[in-house]
Amino acid sequence: MTDPTDTAGKTGGPLAPGTARGRSRDGGLSAVLGDLRAVDGALYAAVAATPTPTLDRALRRLSHAADHSKLSLGIAAALASAGARPRRAAVVGLGAVAVTSAAANLLGKRLVRRARPDREGARVTVDRYVPMPASASFPSGHTACAVAFATAVGVVLPVAAVPLGALAGAVGYSRVHTGVHYPGDVAAGAVLGIAGAAAALAAAAASPVPGVRSVYAPPRAPAAPHG
């Protein structure tokens, strides 16, 4: 038995190209995305439903401190007064924040336009509340910038990699804890932050500014004695 054909002799029915198979692929992708959204929502709800009165105030303050990258700016200022190499790390770190912030706010949020979580519906305790941003939820800009700064500074100044990485992770979690982001927003922000740091590090490596480029330059060989 063959599939029906139309008047032009083209095959129809379930084996027709671009119909059933295409719909099957689209349906499979939609199902996967739906499952991921379900997991994302379940994780958000689990965090919201877990009482953590000891952590609530600290994480709320941390989330607020990371607004507009104030935390990274303060750390960069401290690094700038600690010597040549920390100063270069601060410059590259702030460059990473600038690149990542632009990517998150001018591209990511405008392209995806994911709605913010329903904090009241999830019954997030008011003790955790920070102002709910008006921008789209995906990706988390706070996380993206914190991870970008930590990654870039950590490459230039390895001793700072672990503490700054831990701080960036805490900033990301604080955005879920305070109810303003889904975990998936934070994960996407972390990926974007790593990409932004890589871009800033590549730009610094090619920079014509000696103080920045010298982070990557090999040590100079001692000059040969004359005579």
From TrEMBL:
CDD domains in the cross-refs: PAP2_like
Transmembrane segments: 89-107, 144-166, 186-206
Region (Disordered): 1-26
Primary localization: membrane
Compartments (UniProt record): Cell membrane
Keywords, in A-Z order: Cell membrane, Hydrolase, Membrane, Transmembrane, Transmembrane helix
Membrane topology of this protein: Multi-pass membrane protein
Phosphatidic acid phosphatase type 2/haloperoxidase domain boundaries: 89-201
InterPro entries: PAP2/HPO, PAP2/HPO_sf
Protein name per the record: Phosphatase PAP2 family protein
Species of the source: Streptomyces vinaceusdrappus
